């Protein structure tokens, strides 16, 4: 199988903290036309001197998502030994960051990535581990709520779903459904000021046509987790 072709740009990176920065790659032309949309710029870990993508699983996920969707995008490589000031100031030096026009957004906040393992930890906890694992999940939920509150909102992509939402939303759906069923944890029964950003997030997701089309329902989630819960 032939690897996907990415044609490098001839532009070279000039050391600068200006916005935007770095050389760009144009996504390979598609055999089929895709809908017209604004081209995104994705800041990823790489070597700007050689136009080389380097090891970062989070950047890899975003690029795979964009390639799969056939979305137009450019790439800007970030030298981790010489990060631009704006990246450090606005995103703590973390990548990937997607730029859509004048708006930049982090695409894989650490808080989002912790939900699934924390959820599984509590769901599958032994009686001796219950208190510790529950606390770990609630801490992950606190961090996620804070991250969502700082995002463009109500989603990480603002009014529309981005790659972070596409990765996070199903995990959060499973976590809140399964924990309500087996642990009696109902986020909506908590006071209004507890996890407000997550509650708005879930409501916004439910209104999206894309979500409605592929929502398999809570019963399917519970059935899917039942085999994991045998013996717990």
Automatic annotation (TrEMBL):
Gene3D superfamilies: 1.20.1050.10, Glutaredoxin. One of its GO terms (biological process) is ascorbate glutathione cycle. GO terms for molecular function: glutathione dehydrogenase (ascorbate) activity; transferase activity. Pfam families: GST_C_2, GST_N_2. It catalyses: L-dehydroascorbate + 2 glutathione = glutathione disulfide + L-ascorbate. Keywords: Transferase. InterPro entries: DHAR1/2/3/4, Glutathione-S-Trfase_C_sf, Glutathione_S-Trfase_N, Thioredoxin-like_sf. Residues 1-22 are annotated as: Disordered. Residues 56-104 form the GST N-terminal domain. Belongs to the GST superfamily. DHAR family. PANTHER family: GLUTATHIONE S-TRANSFERASE DHAR2-RELATED. This is Dehydroascorbate reductase. It comes from Raphidocelis subcapitata.
């Amino acid at each position: 199988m032939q690897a996907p072709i990415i044609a490098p740009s001839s532009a070279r990176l000039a050391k600068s903290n200006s916005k935007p920065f770095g050389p760009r790659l144009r996504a390979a032309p598609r055999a089929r036309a895709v809908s017209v949309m604004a081209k995104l710029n994705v800041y990823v870990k790489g070597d700007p001197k050689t136009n080389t993508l380097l090891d970062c699983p989070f950047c890899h996920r975003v690029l795979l998502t964009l390639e799969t969707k056939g979305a137009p995008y450019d790439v800007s490589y970030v030298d981790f030994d010489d990060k631009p000031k704006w990246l450090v100031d606005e995103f703590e030096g973390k990548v990937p960051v997607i730029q859509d026009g004048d708006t930049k957004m982090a695409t894989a906040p650490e808080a989002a990535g912790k939900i699934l393992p924390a959820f599984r930890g509590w769901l599958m906890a032994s009686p001796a581990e219950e208190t510790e694992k529950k606390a770990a999940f609630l801490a992950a939920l606190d961090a996620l709520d804070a991250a969502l509150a700082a995002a463009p909102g109500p989603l990480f992509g603002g009014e529309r779903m981005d790659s972070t939402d596409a990765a996070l939303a199903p995990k959060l759906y499973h976590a809140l459904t399964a924990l309500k069923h087996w642990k009696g944890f109902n986020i909506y029964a908590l006071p209004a000021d507890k996890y407000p950003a997550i509650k708005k997030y879930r409501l916004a997701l439910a209104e999206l046509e894309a979500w409605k089309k592929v929502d398999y329902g809570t019963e399917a989630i519970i059935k899917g987790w039942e085999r994991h819960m045998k013996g717990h």
